[in-house]
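Please check our next protein.
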Amino acid sequence: MNSLQYTSQDGAGNGDRIASGAGNISDGDSLGVELERYWHEANVLKYWLAGLIAVGFLFGILITLLATPMYQATARLEVSQVTADVTNLDSLDSDSRISELQYLNTQFELLVSKFMAKRVMESGNLLRDGAFRDAFGIEDGANIEAKIERTLFDNVSIDPITQSSLVDVRFSSPNPLVSAEIANLWVQEFVAANYEKRFGANIEAREFLQDQIAELRERLADSEQELVEYANSNEILVLNSGGETGSESAGQTLVGADLQALNTALAAAVADRISAQAAIVGGNFPSADPRNQLLARLSEVESELAVLRSNFGPEYPQVQEKQAEVDSLRAAISGGANSLLRSARIREAELRDQVEIVKQRFLGQQGQGIRYGILKREVDTNREIYDALLQRFKELEASGAGQNNIQIIDQADVPAEPYAPSLIQNVLASLLASLVLAAGLVYLKVALSQTLKDPEDVRRRLHLALLGAIPRNTEGAMVERITERSSHINEAYTTVRTNMNFLTPQGAPEVLMFTSSVPSEGKSISSLGVATSFAQLGKRVLLIDADLRNSKLRDTLDLHDYDKGGLVPLLANQQTDMASQIIHLEDFGFDFLPMGRTPPNPVELLAGDRFSQIIEAARGQYDQVLIDGAPMLALADAIEMSKAVDGVIFVIQTERIKLRGIENALGRLQRSGAKVYGAIVTKVSQNNSAYGYGYGYGYGYGYGYGEERDAEPA
């Protein structure tokens, strides 16, 4: 209302500003008004909100008292980046090079995975652990494994220590001993799982190779045993295989060696025989033969004999001695050659017989040698495979000997006292929840309350000029407050009158109709108050009671006895003299045209030309003609009357009709061509004063707000 008073002092032409500025609200002002509205609603609901917060506080205490004490045990791990293999041997799994942060985050996620929960359950045999199941109240059932896994997963947590490779693993349970045992078991299984992940392939490979080596060892022993038994049963004695395989190994048996030796000896005997024959024929002996000395001596003696014969005669004794020596040497040489030839022939014959015998034996072993070679190849193949697997096993054993990069730093101790429930945390959480609910309640109150509470909504939502806000009367009859110039009701309607004077450059429109969405919003009282204010200004004013269905002015002005004349007879052409139907209200200072009897057909009476003729007649006799029209509802009365007037003043009661309903009523008026100049907000209470429309300040009147009394009949 203060803003309207300020506008009214700007002089002529400000009426356009009132109308055009109906919806010009800045974003900052809108936000401020919205916050003010929420604060106002919170103030209205303060007892409910205080009770809600108190309930939240008590609920936090109750939860703390009823909650089961929980004990938390903590174990600490060190998770280091994977280091190089000191054995310099490739393992079956090569570790990918990733960033330390990515590696740590991966390990942290694995720590609280369902995989670990299942591993801990199996390792700790929690299906049969009575202490664990009693602590969490897990009973036998079809899904007991899933329940245990879910319990483990829900009660374990990790807390990585910033700027380090350390992480704390915590487990909570109602049993302190169970908490410590599960926390320790959890970190132990995680360390073991990591070791298996890093070296698991090597371990599995070594186990596989151990099985293969054991199997191959047995197979090799069987093949060697079969080879030995076959050789023994067939009298095959291998002297030296020389690394050879197959049937060639059969040639290295004892029979083969004997045949080879006999062939060598036979070749030597043949050579000796040939040499002996050559010696007999040509006298040539081998250089190493002892007969060569006899031949040399024979040549020497013959030379000496020839010298002696040339010097002496045949009968000379020395010649005869030399001749005898020559004969003796010749006889010795000739006899030795023949003997040697015979000996060579005999040795050759014997060797040929032996070779033939051994040859037959060797030929008999040829078929056995093939089988022996097959067995020998099998033995050699098994031995090669066995040596290769044994070598690979030793390499894997060496490559899998690295240290685990995850280690347990601190074992979990049995907690001495519970860590939960925490009274402070529960109370704070409950209070926070209560505040959220309280805020939600206020929000819902504002969101669901679609009625007009803030008079400024006339500008923001309805895009109309706010002509005035009429406070709720709490000080007696409304009619008395209207006629009393010093009352706040009279002052409020004076403000409405002032703002109406600025609706057009010529002042207030001559003929105005008052209407509302539904009955009892203050439409009739507002028309009475505005008419009184104009009359107090010295103008000739006519107030017409045109609510033909349910007249409120008749009750307000106590005119029940006056029901013969009035507007209805004029509309029905029963009375043609309008002046005879008008009553002058001395207490209010204006003339009044009552309705008369309630007609059976209000719309038909208002739809004719007669109502426009009455209005035109009144326009020529009065400075201001005000009409108390019918409410909009779903009726056409107000629409028919709006065709004969200069404009419409819409009356809205606070906190009664939803804004959407008001918008629909205004839409019907505007679509019919009626000009709505503005709105009057009625029955503004102390609650609405929070929006800046209170009447206990600003004017110095000091009116209070006590118990609300419905002193406004219209």
Summary: The first helix runs from residue 2 to 8.
